[in-house]
Design goal:
about 160 residues, alpha+beta, 3 helices, about 40% strand, globular
């Protein structure tokens, strides 16, 4: 089994690193690559959808990013304990008609000893926004290190 550092049990520093690594992966929008952060039998609840295993996760992410265009995400550590991390996040995207959205949510993560996520519970709400209301304007891909953190936006 491969490892995915940082490994649990998490400290504040390593939990923040794990959150940033997840954010960077999702901002890459590469489903197969992102799915490698999850255990072979990882269990997800994403909104009202339930997934099990990397194959279902990769297929879900493929569908997601085919519909959520110009996706930009910021994640922020909320809490951590041992093998678990809680995250809050926001992301902006538009649909095929050009309508922009901001999606807000919380995730609860659990990791195995190899640092692979075994459980992910995500609760997410979408808000329709105008182009002028967008706040995430970095070039597609990884959020620059000097870009403001999620808390700075007041969401």
């Amino acid at each position: 089994m491969s490892t995915r550092p940082p490994l649990p049990p998490f400290t504040k520093e390593t939990a923040i690193q794990k959150v940033r690594a997840a954010e960077d992966g999702w901002n890459s929008r590469h489903p197969q690559q992102v799915s490698l952060a999850y255990s072979e039998d990882s269990r997800w609840r994403n909104r009202s959808e339930f997934l099990v295993g990397r194959e279902q996760i990769a297929a879900f992410l493929q569908r997601k990013w085919e519909n959520e265009l110009d996706y930009r995400l910021i994640k922020e550590l909320w809490a951590f304990d041992g093998h678990r991390i809680a995250v809050r996040f926001a992301y902006e995207w538009h649909d095929h008609r050009g309508q922009w959205f901001r999606s807000y949510g919380n995730e609860n993560w659990e990791f195995n000893e190899s640092g692979l996520m075994t459980v992910r519970h995500a609760s997410i709400n979408d808000l329709t926004i105008a182009d002028a209301e967008r706040r995430f304007h970095w070039p597609l891909g990884r959020r620059p290190d000097d870009y403001p953190p999620l808390s700075s936006f007041g969401f």
